[in-house]
Design goal:
This protein is of the alpha/beta class. It has one domain: Glycosidases (TIM Barrel), CATH 3.20.20.80. An eight-stranded parallel β-barrel has the order 1-2-3-4-5-6-8-9, surrounded by five helices. Helix 12 links the parallel strand 8 and strand 9. Helix 7 packs parallel to helix 9, helix 11 runs parallel beside helix 12 and helix 12 runs parallel beside helix 14. It starts with 5 loop residues before the first helix and ends with a helix. The chain binds (3S,4R)-3-hydroxy-2-oxopiperidin-4-yl beta-D-xylopyranoside. The site of (3S,4R)-3-hydroxy-2-oxopiperidin-4-yl beta-D-xylopyranoside has 6 residues, from loops.
């Protein structure tokens, strides 16, 4: 008998965001990534501040390590992210320049990064989180300096640097309701209609276990209705969104979480096969998830526990197909 793994049992790629220092230093983490997943996203190592800490300096070592690991183990690499308003280095936050100089900064960064990983990184989140929850464009430093049309140009710059790379628009909150997701879909459809090279939509899906199913399935089916590839790009399911400090994990909570993972996987499995780019969880186990440290609370958002063991959520994922 062959051991059950996510990559071996699911009909589309199964990914994890990977923390490079854990990959290097923690053998249990590394073994679990190697065994379970066939797609890898860098949790932080390909963000602007990580790769490009000063104007003329690029630091590739962590990202290269991750890419080399992935290729040596037959895993796809998804790039995250060429453009975001967070994780920017001080030199960008403080950059004084004309519009042309800002455009050059954007273009140079995108083309240097995409060029460096050409032929190794098959897909990119080109622009991340450009839409507010009320559906308006987020007033980021990029919009302030370049206007909202910079979004389309970011895709064109990436495409010029690697015409074979699949290019995604990535955001969270499609499941909040029609307001935000309609704005995202309008943006994506507008890019398509202008001939901008966009191949896919990333739905982050950082959700809470109380998230209603109707909005989850609508998030997936409306994204698929664009005809683009759909990537569930950063999934985790929080069990303690109200920040209860002394909460402990129970089997009942695990079962609710498993049911929510199953609902999502089932809705995803229902879209056309050609559009199923894959499902990526945001890190590997509950002990390395960004949720507890970011929100300063106990939580258990992922399918593996702190001892690298499968939780109920793992079976929930398998049950979705
Ligand atoms: C998070 C990482 O997980 C953290 O380690 C880091 O401190 C901040 O960024 N949406 C995204 C991801 O697109 O890049 C974020 O990752 C989580 C939210």
């Amino acid at each position: 008998t062959v051991e059950t793994t996510l990559q071996g049992n699911m009909p589309f790629p199964m990914g994890a965001a990977v923390n490079v220092s854990l990959l290097k230093n923690n053998i249990n983490y590394r073994n679990l990534v190697t065994k379970e997943f066939n797609s890898i996203t860098a949790e932080n190592a390909m963000k602007f501040a990580s790769l490009h800490p000063s104007k003329d300096t690029y630091t590739w070592s962590d990202a290269d390590y991750l890419v080399d690991f992935a290729i040596a183990n037959g895993k796809r690499v998804h790039g995250h992210t060429l453009n975001w308003y967070k994780s920017l280095p001080d030199w960008v936050e403080n950059f004084q320049g004309t519009t042309a100089e800002w455009e050059n900064l954007l273009k140079t960064h995108i083309q240097t990064v995409v060029g460096h990983f050409k032929g190794k990184v098959v897909s990119w989140d080109v622009v991340n989180e450009a839409i507010n929850d009320d559906g308006s464009f987020r007033n980021t430093i990029w919009v302030q300096k370049l206007g909202v049309d910079y979004i389309g140009r970011a895709f064109q710059y990436a495409h010029q640097a690697d015409p074979n790379a699949l290019l995604f628009y990535n955001d969270y909150g499609h499941e909040f309701g029609p307001t935000k997701r309609t704005a995202i879909l309008n943006l994506v459809n507008d890019l398509k209609s202008k001939g901008i090279p966009i191949d896919g939509i990333g739905l982050q899906m950082h959700i809470r276990v109380t998230q209603n199913d109707a909005n989850l399935t609508a998030a997936i089916s409306t994204a698929a209705a664009t005809g683009l590839r759909v990537h569930i790009s950063e999934i985790d399911i929080a069990l303690n969104p109200d920040n209860i400090q002394n909460m402990t994990y129970t089997a009942a909570m695990g079962d609710q979480q498993a049911a929510k993972y199953k609902t999502i996987v089932k809705a995803y499995h229902a879209i056309s096969k050609a559009q199923q780019f894959g499902i990526t969880q945001w890190n590997v186990t509950d002990s390395d998830s960004w949720i507890p440290s970011t929100y300063n609370r106990p939580d258990w958002p992922l399918p593996f526990d702190a001892l690298y063991q499968k939780k109920a959520a793992y079976q929930g994922i398998l049950d979705g197909v």
